[in-house]
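User: Can you model how magnesium ion sits in this protein?
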Amino acid sequence: MPEFIPLISQQEIQEKIREIGQKITRDYKDLDLVVVGVLKGSFIFLADLVRHITIDHEIDLVGASSYEGTSSTGQIQITKPPDFDLEGRDVLLVEDIVDTGRTLVMLVKFMQGLNPRSIKICSLIDKNERREAKINVDYSCFSLDRGFIVGYGLDYNEKYRNLPEIFNLKLQS
Ligand code: IMP
Ligand code: MG
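Assistant: Here's the modeled complex, given as structure tokens:
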């Protein structure tokens, strides 16, 4: 059985999301905000975050899966493109966790091809340990140095997304 070590409580998560939502509300006051959640890991974070963004905005979803090709840079597959025409709009990409940064670098490149006016990144967790790509997370709720975490949308082999708080997962050998 894996061991679950509590890391971030429901209360800490909710307090931080309120603060970030208020900041986004201020920053996008005069802009044309489209919040684009990255499937699947962001779905719970996205649902809580948008309830703290109190200016008018629209919500879309994008599906991306990254895999290692024969080249070391890896490749991205868009499994679900955004529904809206994002040209000239202010896109805020919402991710569960930025790890190596590869997924986001490639996703941002794809999104830039849709000609939005701006693209910024909001991530629940900014994990620094294995960062390879140069990526700036504009709105980060929590930073993590090391470890593998689950819960609040984050999975291990598609499980544990339903846990209401964030746990460090220790796999027994
Ligand atoms: P990146 O391309 O390495 O930044 O990959 C980020 C993706 O890897 C995230 O969207 C997650 O799906 C997954 N991931 C990375 N670290 C963790 C973790 O600690 N827990 C759960 N998923 C993770
Ligand atoms: Mg995942």
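A couple of observations from the model: Residues 41, 66, 95-103, 127, 148-150, 154-155 surround inosinic acid (ligand 1) (CB under 6 Å). The mean pLDDT is 93.
User: Helpful, thanks.
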